[in-house]
Structure formats: C-alpha cells, structure tokens
Amino acid sequence: MSKITLENMEFHAFHGCLDFEQRLGNTFIVSLSMELDTTQPGLTDDLEHTLNYQLVYDEVKAQMETPSKLIEHVGQRILDAVFQRFQQIKTLEIKLSKLNPPLGGKVERVTIELIKHR
Description:
With 118 residues, this protein is α+β, with helices and mostly antiparallel strands. The chain has helices at 19-24, 39-44, 53-64, 71-85; strands spanning 2-13, 26-36, 91-99, 109-117. It has one domain: GTP Cyclohydrolase I, domain 2, CATH 3.30.1130.10. 33% of the residues lie in helices and 35% in strands. A four-stranded antiparallel sheet has the order 1-2-3-4. Helix 3 (53-64) runs antiparallel to helix 4. Residues 4-116 form the Dihydroneopterin aldolase/epimerase domain. It holds the Pfam family FolB.
C-alpha cells in the first residue's frame, strides 16, 4: 500500500455562516492523503495504471466552488465525491482549513480532519 498526498491546495471560496463570508469569501487550504496500491504503475510507468491526481484536484476544486455554511459540510462533500469517483483509493484523509476565521480575535485557522476507509 502506498500513500499519495496532495498538500496545501489553496482556494478562495465562499463558505461561512456570516453574510460577509458568503459575499467576500475567504482562503481555504485542503490536503488529501490517499492510500492505494501503486505496485503496477511502479512497474509500468503508465498513467493509466495509477490515480490521476489532476482529476482528484479537479474534483476538490469543483466541491470548493459550491458554497456551504460549514466547513464540516464541505469536507464531507469532498470526502464522499473523491472516494466514490476513485475506486482504487482504500483510505482517504482530508484536512480542510479556513484561514483567519472571524472569531473576534486573532486565530490563524480552524481545521477539520476527516477519514474514510473502504
């Protein structure tokens, strides 16, 4: 089993409960770790035998473009969409952070982490 990780994908998106968050947006950071068997592509050097992480990125981007109030909801959508679309993934971990959340004080980020196993 191997792990492929897309680290610190950055998106400007419109997630949040407050009106100004939905209008102005915020910066979000997404990291995905995917466990899968990479024996065959390791031997063949053929993209057709492995996970095309450009397509994984495209799926994450599509989910980030759909506004939600809660990062829990966004994270679950990403987790479900990627896991369903890419059957070769055995374990999927997502880390989704909202930078500078409006909490009335200086907070660098709020983060949710989700894991799903096949």
